[in-house]
Amino acid sequence: MNIVTQTIAWLTNPAHWQGPNGIPVRMVEHIAISGVSLAIALAIALPVGLYIGHTGRMANLAINAANIWRALPSLAVIAIALPITAAIDPQAGFKIYPTIIAMVVLAVPPILVNAYAGLREVDRDTIEAARGQGFSERQLLRKVEVPLALPVIVTGIRSGAVQIIATATLGAIFGFGGLGRFLVDGFAQFSLGGAAEMLGGVVLVSGLVIVTDLLFAAFQRVITPRGMRVERSEAPAAA
Prior knowledge:
By secondary structure, this protein is mainly α. The chain is 79% helix and 0% strand. The chain has helices at residues 3-11, 23-55, 59-71, 74-88, 92-95, 97-120, 124-132, 137-167, 180-189, 192-223, 226-234.
């Protein structure tokens, strides 16, 4: 039996779809830690991105800091955070918090940069026209800039979400569950069955990434004004 057939057999085995270590439980764990990490990243990056995009203040500092964050390897972030979080909470501080911190660090740059870029791309004449109608700065941001920049902002969130889901597998190395558990447990077996479990885990993570990306793409299309869709579809292809 080759590895592909073995992997299909592993994925379709009813025993792997039930119990505390089954695929549904691991999927829920993976989605939960990814959702928490994305929420934290949004709470950090979105306000900063909107602020620097609206005002233009400290933009270079924030963008450069985000790019430095982007260059940090996730495993290195976990290794740095682990001793600190484990000292604070020996249980969750070893299994959960370092992985969340690594994923937040990974997701902040695309969210922040796209929020900034989206606001800066809003037509200046539109902004000045809104100011001329008596819009306050807060009203301008909420009623004009954010709605027009929303497709670009969602692109950053979409990128961050996809990266988080892929990176959440690292948590299994330190004892967390999630779909990464199948990769770690499969690797530890050093057998064809273990290889099938590893490949099955890869298939599940890839499927979750694809579904997440498609959902964000659909949402992005819904929130994009019809006129902007036409402009994009008529734009000449890059050489």
